[in-house]
Amino acid sequence: MPGQTASSNGKVPALKGKKQKAPFWAKAVTALGAFLAVLSVSGIVGVKYFLGQLTDNIQTTSSVLDNESGGGAGKETGKLPDGAINLLMLGLDTRESWGKEGITSRSDTMIILHISKAHDQAYMISIPRDAKVQIPADSSLGTRATTDKINGAYALGSENNRGWTGGAKLATKTVHEVTGINFDGVVVIDFDGFKGILEAMGGVYMCVDKDVWSSHYVVVNGKVQYAVGADPTSPPRNALWFRKGCRNMAAWEALEFSRIRHSSNGDYDRQRHQQQLLRAMAKKASSSGVLTNPAKVANILKAAGSALKMDTHGVGVQDFIFGMKSLAAADLIPIKTNDGTFAPTSDQSAETLNPDTMDLFKATAADNLRDFLVRHPQMLISDGSTGSL
Predict the structure, then answer these.
(1) Which residue range forms the structural domain that includes residue 341?
(2) If DSSP codes are grouped into helix, strand and coil, which group holds residue 162?
(3) 21 inside domain
(4) CB of 55 within 8 A of CB of 318?
(5) What is the pTM of this model?
(6) Which parts of the chain sit beneath pLDDT 50?
(7) At 200, is the secondary structure helix, strand, or coil?
(8) What is the rounded CA–CA span in Å between residue 25 and residue 306?
(9) Pairwise CA distance, residues 236 & 228, whole Å
(10) Are 278 and 24 in contact (CB under 8 A)?
Protein backbone atom coordinates (compact mmCIF):
# COMPACT_ATOMS: atom_id res chain seq x y z
CA MET A 1 0.00 0.00 0.00
CA PRO A 2 1.28 3.53 -0.77
CA GLY A 3 2.56 5.50 2.22
CA GLN A 4 -0.54 6.01 4.35
CA THR A 5 -3.03 3.79 2.62
CA ALA A 6 -6.33 1.99 2.62
CA SER A 7 -8.17 -0.09 5.14
CA SER A 8 -7.35 -3.74 5.58
CA ASN A 9 -10.01 -4.94 3.15
CA GLY A 10 -8.30 -3.03 0.33
CA LYS A 11 -11.48 -1.12 -0.54
CA VAL A 12 -12.10 2.58 -0.66
CA PRO A 13 -15.41 4.35 -0.06
CA ALA A 14 -17.38 5.55 -3.07
CA LEU A 15 -16.37 9.06 -3.99
CA LYS A 16 -18.79 11.85 -3.26
CA GLY A 17 -18.92 15.54 -3.83
CA LYS A 18 -16.90 17.14 -6.60
CA LYS A 19 -16.65 15.41 -9.96
CA GLN A 20 -13.30 13.80 -10.57
CA LYS A 21 -11.15 13.61 -13.62
CA ALA A 22 -11.23 10.32 -15.41
CA PRO A 23 -8.05 8.44 -15.76
CA PHE A 24 -7.90 6.93 -19.09
CA TRP A 25 -9.63 3.74 -19.93
CA ALA A 26 -7.50 1.13 -21.11
CA LYS A 27 -6.78 -1.52 -23.45
CA ALA A 28 -10.19 -2.37 -24.61
CA VAL A 29 -9.30 -3.09 -28.16
CA THR A 30 -5.71 -4.29 -28.18
CA ALA A 31 -5.68 -6.73 -25.30
CA LEU A 32 -9.27 -7.87 -25.71
CA GLY A 33 -8.65 -8.79 -29.34
CA ALA A 34 -5.61 -10.81 -28.32
CA PHE A 35 -7.63 -12.14 -25.41
CA LEU A 36 -10.30 -13.68 -27.61
CA ALA A 37 -7.76 -15.04 -30.05
CA VAL A 38 -5.98 -16.92 -27.27
CA LEU A 39 -9.28 -18.21 -25.92
CA SER A 40 -10.25 -19.63 -29.30
CA VAL A 41 -6.97 -21.52 -29.55
CA SER A 42 -6.95 -22.83 -25.99
CA GLY A 43 -10.54 -23.99 -26.16
CA ILE A 44 -11.63 -22.74 -22.77
CA VAL A 45 -15.46 -22.69 -23.42
CA GLY A 46 -17.13 -21.37 -26.57
CA VAL A 47 -15.70 -18.16 -27.93
CA LYS A 48 -19.21 -17.06 -28.91
CA TYR A 49 -20.18 -16.98 -25.25
CA PHE A 50 -17.22 -14.80 -24.29
CA LEU A 51 -17.66 -12.55 -27.30
CA GLY A 52 -21.30 -12.08 -26.33
CA GLN A 53 -20.17 -10.90 -22.90
CA LEU A 54 -18.21 -8.15 -24.62
CA THR A 55 -20.52 -7.08 -27.43
CA ASP A 56 -24.04 -7.39 -26.04
CA ASN A 57 -24.02 -4.03 -24.29
CA ILE A 58 -21.56 -1.98 -26.37
CA GLN A 59 -23.15 1.22 -27.66
CA THR A 60 -22.17 1.81 -31.28
CA THR A 61 -22.68 4.54 -33.83
CA SER A 62 -21.72 5.24 -37.43
CA SER A 63 -22.03 9.02 -37.09
CA VAL A 64 -18.59 9.87 -35.68
CA LEU A 65 -16.22 8.89 -38.47
CA ASP A 66 -16.80 10.56 -41.83
CA ASN A 67 -14.65 12.34 -44.40
CA GLU A 68 -14.37 15.52 -42.31
CA SER A 69 -13.60 13.78 -39.03
CA GLY A 70 -10.83 11.62 -40.45
CA GLY A 71 -12.67 8.41 -41.18
CA GLY A 72 -9.87 6.28 -42.56
CA ALA A 73 -9.88 6.23 -46.35
CA GLY A 74 -13.09 8.24 -46.35
CA LYS A 75 -15.54 5.39 -46.85
CA GLU A 76 -16.81 2.36 -44.99
CA THR A 77 -15.56 -0.95 -46.38
CA GLY A 78 -16.96 -3.29 -43.74
CA LYS A 79 -13.52 -4.54 -42.77
CA LEU A 80 -10.40 -3.26 -41.07
CA PRO A 81 -7.66 -2.02 -43.41
CA ASP A 82 -4.90 -4.43 -44.37
CA GLY A 83 -2.29 -1.80 -43.57
CA ALA A 84 -1.77 0.51 -40.62
CA ILE A 85 -4.65 1.09 -38.20
CA ASN A 86 -5.26 4.23 -36.12
CA LEU A 87 -7.65 4.32 -33.17
CA LEU A 88 -8.61 7.35 -31.09
CA MET A 89 -9.37 6.58 -27.47
CA LEU A 90 -11.21 9.14 -25.34
CA GLY A 91 -11.56 9.02 -21.55
CA LEU A 92 -14.21 11.19 -19.87
CA ASP A 93 -14.79 12.55 -16.39
CA THR A 94 -18.53 11.75 -16.44
CA ARG A 95 -19.86 9.36 -13.80
CA GLU A 96 -23.47 8.46 -13.03
CA SER A 97 -24.57 11.48 -15.09
CA TRP A 98 -23.43 9.75 -18.31
CA GLY A 99 -26.01 10.37 -21.01
CA LYS A 100 -28.26 12.64 -18.94
CA GLU A 101 -29.70 15.69 -20.64
CA GLY A 102 -27.59 18.82 -20.36
CA ILE A 103 -24.51 16.98 -19.09
CA THR A 104 -21.24 17.60 -20.91
CA SER A 105 -17.76 16.27 -20.30
CA ARG A 106 -14.26 17.13 -21.43
CA SER A 107 -12.16 14.34 -22.87
CA ASP A 108 -9.31 14.84 -20.43
CA THR A 109 -7.62 11.72 -21.77
CA MET A 110 -6.96 11.46 -25.49
CA ILE A 111 -4.68 8.70 -26.78
CA ILE A 112 -3.87 7.79 -30.36
CA LEU A 113 -3.17 4.08 -30.75
CA HIS A 114 -1.22 3.53 -33.97
CA ILE A 115 -0.82 -0.05 -35.18
CA SER A 116 1.90 -0.49 -37.78
CA LYS A 117 1.23 -1.91 -41.25
CA ALA A 118 2.86 -5.19 -40.26
CA HIS A 119 0.59 -5.32 -37.17
CA ASP A 120 3.60 -6.19 -35.04
CA GLN A 121 3.83 -2.99 -33.03
CA ALA A 122 1.35 -0.63 -31.41
CA TYR A 123 2.30 2.88 -30.37
CA MET A 124 0.52 4.98 -27.72
CA ILE A 125 0.61 8.75 -28.18
CA SER A 126 -1.04 10.89 -25.49
CA ILE A 127 -2.32 14.27 -26.66
CA PRO A 128 -1.74 17.04 -24.07
CA ARG A 129 -5.17 17.94 -22.68
CA ASP A 130 -4.27 21.64 -22.42
CA ALA A 131 -2.97 22.04 -25.99
CA LYS A 132 -4.49 25.20 -27.49
CA VAL A 133 -5.91 24.38 -30.91
CA GLN A 134 -8.46 25.46 -33.48
CA ILE A 135 -11.65 23.46 -32.97
CA PRO A 136 -13.27 23.34 -36.41
CA ALA A 137 -16.87 24.16 -37.21
CA ASP A 138 -19.23 21.27 -37.89
CA SER A 139 -22.42 21.97 -39.80
CA SER A 140 -23.99 18.63 -38.88
CA LEU A 141 -23.63 19.52 -35.19
CA GLY A 142 -24.38 23.21 -35.60
CA THR A 143 -21.10 24.25 -33.96
CA ARG A 144 -18.87 27.15 -34.97
CA ALA A 145 -15.10 27.22 -35.16
CA THR A 146 -13.40 28.34 -31.98
CA THR A 147 -10.01 28.31 -30.29
CA ASP A 148 -9.81 26.34 -27.04
CA LYS A 149 -7.93 23.62 -25.25
CA ILE A 150 -8.22 20.39 -27.21
CA ASN A 151 -10.09 18.60 -24.43
CA GLY A 152 -12.91 21.13 -24.86
CA ALA A 153 -13.85 19.81 -28.31
CA TYR A 154 -15.74 16.87 -26.83
CA ALA A 155 -17.69 19.13 -24.46
CA LEU A 156 -18.65 21.50 -27.27
CA GLY A 157 -19.77 18.68 -29.54
CA SER A 158 -21.92 17.07 -26.85
CA GLU A 159 -23.77 20.23 -25.87
CA ASN A 160 -27.50 20.71 -26.48
CA ASN A 161 -28.21 17.03 -25.87
CA ARG A 162 -26.04 15.87 -28.77
CA GLY A 163 -24.53 13.37 -26.34
CA TRP A 164 -21.48 11.16 -26.68
CA THR A 165 -21.79 10.79 -30.45
CA GLY A 166 -21.64 14.56 -30.97
CA GLY A 167 -18.78 14.90 -28.51
CA ALA A 168 -16.78 12.08 -30.05
CA LYS A 169 -17.36 13.44 -33.56
CA LEU A 170 -16.08 16.93 -32.82
CA ALA A 171 -13.18 15.62 -30.72
CA THR A 172 -12.15 13.25 -33.53
CA LYS A 173 -12.52 15.94 -36.18
CA THR A 174 -10.35 18.28 -34.11
CA VAL A 175 -7.62 15.68 -33.56
CA HIS A 176 -7.70 14.81 -37.26
CA GLU A 177 -7.24 18.45 -38.31
CA VAL A 178 -4.46 19.03 -35.77
CA THR A 179 -2.53 15.84 -36.54
CA GLY A 180 -3.48 14.89 -40.11
CA ILE A 181 -4.18 11.35 -38.91
CA ASN A 182 -7.15 9.38 -40.28
CA PHE A 183 -8.92 7.07 -37.85
CA ASP A 184 -10.33 3.58 -38.32
CA GLY A 185 -12.11 3.51 -35.00
CA VAL A 186 -13.04 5.67 -32.01
CA VAL A 187 -13.60 4.31 -28.51
CA VAL A 188 -15.08 6.25 -25.59
CA ILE A 189 -15.19 5.15 -21.96
CA ASP A 190 -16.13 6.77 -18.67
CA PHE A 191 -14.56 6.44 -15.22
CA ASP A 192 -16.99 3.87 -13.85
CA GLY A 193 -16.54 1.60 -16.86
CA PHE A 194 -12.77 1.73 -16.55
CA LYS A 195 -12.99 0.95 -12.85
CA GLY A 196 -15.23 -2.05 -13.56
CA ILE A 197 -12.72 -3.56 -15.98
CA LEU A 198 -9.88 -3.19 -13.47
CA GLU A 199 -11.95 -4.64 -10.63
CA ALA A 200 -12.86 -7.64 -12.77
CA MET A 201 -9.15 -8.16 -13.40
CA GLY A 202 -8.39 -8.06 -9.70
CA GLY A 203 -6.10 -5.04 -9.97
CA VAL A 204 -2.74 -4.75 -11.72
CA TYR A 205 0.98 -4.67 -11.02
CA MET A 206 2.29 -1.09 -11.17
CA CYS A 207 5.55 0.70 -10.52
CA VAL A 208 5.65 4.14 -8.88
CA ASP A 209 8.63 6.03 -10.28
CA LYS A 210 8.73 8.73 -7.58
CA ASP A 211 6.88 9.56 -4.38
CA VAL A 212 3.62 11.37 -5.12
CA TRP A 213 0.54 12.29 -3.09
CA SER A 214 -3.14 12.15 -3.94
CA SER A 215 -5.22 15.31 -3.94
CA HIS A 216 -8.42 13.25 -3.86
CA TYR A 217 -7.88 11.05 -0.79
CA VAL A 218 -6.70 11.40 2.79
CA VAL A 219 -6.11 8.82 5.53
CA VAL A 220 -8.23 9.12 8.68
CA ASN A 221 -7.71 6.64 11.53
CA GLY A 222 -5.92 4.32 9.15
CA LYS A 223 -8.69 4.34 6.55
CA VAL A 224 -8.79 6.03 3.17
CA GLN A 225 -11.46 8.69 2.74
CA TYR A 226 -12.38 11.13 0.00
CA ALA A 227 -10.70 14.48 0.65
CA VAL A 228 -13.64 16.88 0.72
CA GLY A 229 -12.53 20.48 0.19
CA ALA A 230 -8.83 19.63 0.14
CA ASP A 231 -6.26 22.01 -1.31
CA PRO A 232 -5.12 20.33 -4.56
CA THR A 233 -1.80 22.22 -4.55
CA SER A 234 -0.36 21.21 -1.18
CA PRO A 235 -0.39 17.83 0.59
CA PRO A 236 -2.14 17.79 4.00
CA ARG A 237 -0.52 16.02 6.94
CA ASN A 238 -2.75 12.98 6.41
CA ALA A 239 -2.33 12.83 2.63
CA LEU A 240 -2.41 9.48 0.88
CA TRP A 241 1.08 8.92 -0.54
CA PHE A 242 2.16 6.59 -3.31
CA ARG A 243 5.73 5.63 -2.47
CA LYS A 244 8.38 4.74 -5.03
CA GLY A 245 8.49 1.04 -5.82
CA CYS A 246 6.62 -1.75 -7.59
CA ARG A 247 3.69 -3.73 -6.23
CA ASN A 248 0.22 -5.05 -6.95
CA MET A 249 -2.39 -2.30 -6.78
CA ALA A 250 -6.12 -2.64 -6.23
CA ALA A 251 -8.32 -1.17 -8.95
CA TRP A 252 -8.99 2.10 -7.14
CA GLU A 253 -5.31 2.59 -6.33
CA ALA A 254 -4.19 2.06 -9.92
CA LEU A 255 -6.85 4.47 -11.15
CA GLU A 256 -5.90 7.12 -8.62
CA PHE A 257 -2.20 6.81 -9.42
CA SER A 258 -2.97 7.28 -13.12
CA ARG A 259 -5.02 10.41 -12.37
CA ILE A 260 -2.45 12.39 -10.39
CA ARG A 261 -1.17 15.44 -12.28
CA HIS A 262 0.01 17.90 -9.62
CA SER A 263 3.48 16.31 -9.53
CA SER A 264 6.64 18.03 -10.70
CA ASN A 265 5.88 17.44 -14.38
CA GLY A 266 2.12 17.83 -14.19
CA ASP A 267 0.00 16.35 -16.94
CA TYR A 268 3.01 14.68 -18.58
CA ASP A 269 3.54 12.52 -15.50
CA ARG A 270 -0.15 11.66 -15.65
CA GLN A 271 0.16 10.70 -19.33
CA ARG A 272 3.07 8.38 -18.54
CA HIS A 273 1.18 6.74 -15.72
CA GLN A 274 -1.89 6.26 -17.90
CA GLN A 275 0.20 4.60 -20.58
CA GLN A 276 1.82 2.45 -17.91
CA LEU A 277 -1.62 1.41 -16.71
CA LEU A 278 -2.64 0.38 -20.23
CA ARG A 279 0.44 -1.78 -20.56
CA ALA A 280 -0.12 -3.32 -17.14
CA MET A 281 -3.71 -4.15 -18.06
CA ALA A 282 -2.68 -5.67 -21.38
CA LYS A 283 -0.15 -7.85 -19.58
CA LYS A 284 -2.64 -8.89 -16.91
CA ALA A 285 -5.34 -9.72 -19.48
CA SER A 286 -3.01 -12.04 -21.37
CA SER A 287 -1.58 -13.74 -18.27
CA SER A 288 -2.22 -17.40 -17.54
CA GLY A 289 -3.98 -16.47 -14.30
CA VAL A 290 -6.68 -14.73 -16.31
CA LEU A 291 -6.83 -16.80 -19.47
CA THR A 292 -7.28 -20.08 -17.58
CA ASN A 293 -10.11 -18.68 -15.44
CA PRO A 294 -13.36 -18.67 -17.47
CA ALA A 295 -15.29 -16.80 -14.76
CA LYS A 296 -12.71 -14.01 -14.67
CA VAL A 297 -12.66 -13.81 -18.46
CA ALA A 298 -16.44 -13.49 -18.53
CA ASN A 299 -16.46 -10.79 -15.85
CA ILE A 300 -13.78 -8.73 -17.59
CA LEU A 301 -15.51 -8.90 -20.96
CA LYS A 302 -18.89 -8.13 -19.40
CA ALA A 303 -17.46 -5.06 -17.67
CA ALA A 304 -15.80 -3.88 -20.88
CA GLY A 305 -18.91 -4.49 -22.96
CA SER A 306 -21.11 -2.39 -20.68
CA ALA A 307 -18.57 0.45 -20.55
CA LEU A 308 -17.57 0.99 -24.17
CA LYS A 309 -19.02 3.33 -26.74
CA MET A 310 -17.59 2.89 -30.24
CA ASP A 311 -17.61 3.90 -33.87
CA THR A 312 -15.91 1.10 -35.78
CA HIS A 313 -16.31 2.79 -39.17
CA GLY A 314 -18.70 0.23 -40.59
CA VAL A 315 -16.83 -2.82 -39.32
CA GLY A 316 -18.92 -5.21 -37.22
CA VAL A 317 -17.92 -5.10 -33.57
CA GLN A 318 -17.02 -8.78 -33.52
CA ASP A 319 -14.93 -8.41 -36.69
CA PHE A 320 -13.34 -5.29 -35.22
CA ILE A 321 -12.28 -7.12 -32.06
CA PHE A 322 -11.03 -10.21 -33.88
CA GLY A 323 -9.18 -7.96 -36.30
CA MET A 324 -6.92 -7.03 -33.39
CA LYS A 325 -5.85 -10.62 -32.75
CA SER A 326 -2.50 -10.18 -34.49
CA LEU A 327 -1.51 -7.84 -31.66
CA ALA A 328 -1.23 -10.75 -29.24
CA ALA A 329 2.54 -10.66 -29.58
CA ALA A 330 2.89 -6.97 -30.45
CA ASP A 331 4.86 -4.47 -28.45
CA LEU A 332 2.86 -1.65 -26.85
CA ILE A 333 5.21 1.30 -27.13
CA PRO A 334 4.61 4.55 -25.15
CA ILE A 335 5.61 7.85 -26.77
CA LYS A 336 5.78 11.31 -25.21
CA THR A 337 4.84 14.56 -26.91
CA ASN A 338 6.39 18.01 -26.32
CA ASP A 339 9.54 16.36 -24.94
CA GLY A 340 7.47 15.43 -21.90
CA THR A 341 7.38 18.99 -20.53
CA PHE A 342 4.77 21.74 -20.46
CA ALA A 343 5.15 24.19 -23.36
CA PRO A 344 3.11 27.25 -22.32
CA THR A 345 1.40 29.71 -24.62
CA SER A 346 2.45 33.35 -24.32
CA ASP A 347 -0.34 34.08 -21.82
CA GLN A 348 0.38 30.89 -19.81
CA SER A 349 -3.29 29.85 -20.14
CA ALA A 350 -2.65 26.72 -22.20
CA GLU A 351 0.19 25.04 -24.07
CA THR A 352 1.47 24.71 -27.59
CA LEU A 353 2.53 21.66 -29.60
CA ASN A 354 6.22 21.89 -30.46
CA PRO A 355 7.70 21.15 -33.93
CA ASP A 356 8.93 17.67 -32.96
CA THR A 357 5.42 16.77 -31.84
CA MET A 358 3.92 17.96 -35.12
CA ASP A 359 6.55 15.89 -36.98
CA LEU A 360 5.58 12.93 -34.78
CA PHE A 361 1.98 13.28 -35.95
CA LYS A 362 3.11 13.43 -39.58
CA ALA A 363 5.16 10.25 -39.15
CA THR A 364 2.16 8.55 -37.57
CA ALA A 365 -0.11 9.54 -40.44
CA ALA A 366 2.46 8.16 -42.89
CA ASP A 367 3.01 4.96 -40.86
CA ASN A 368 6.67 5.86 -40.51
CA LEU A 369 6.94 5.88 -36.73
CA ARG A 370 9.66 3.24 -36.48
CA ASP A 371 12.12 5.28 -38.57
CA PHE A 372 11.04 8.53 -36.94
CA LEU A 373 11.75 7.20 -33.46
CA VAL A 374 15.16 5.95 -34.51
CA ARG A 375 15.94 9.59 -35.30
CA HIS A 376 14.14 10.90 -32.19
CA PRO A 377 14.80 8.34 -29.43
CA GLN A 378 14.16 11.00 -26.76
CA MET A 379 10.44 10.73 -27.55
CA LEU A 380 10.29 7.12 -26.36
CA ILE A 381 9.30 6.54 -22.77
CA SER A 382 11.72 4.07 -21.24
CA ASP A 383 10.70 1.05 -19.17
CA GLY A 384 12.35 2.68 -16.20
CA SER A 385 9.86 5.54 -16.24
CA THR A 386 6.74 3.53 -17.02
CA GLY A 387 7.35 0.64 -14.70
CA SER A 388 8.68 -2.83 -15.36
CA LEU A 389 6.31 -5.05 -17.25
Answers:
(1) 30-202+287-384
(2) coil
(3) no
(4) yes
(5) 0.78
(6) 1-46, 74, 95-102, 329, 384-389
(7) helix
(8) 13
(9) 12
(10) yes
